Amino acid sequence: MMQIDLFSIVWIIVAIAVVVGLFVVLIFKADKVVRLLKLDQGFDDDRIELGNLKANDIVKLGAFIIGGFLIIDNIPAFLSHSLFAFKSDLIGFEYSIREKFNWAVCGLNLIIGFLLLTNYDFVAKLLKVKKTENE
Question: What DSSP state is assigned to residue 92?
Answer without folding.
Answer: T
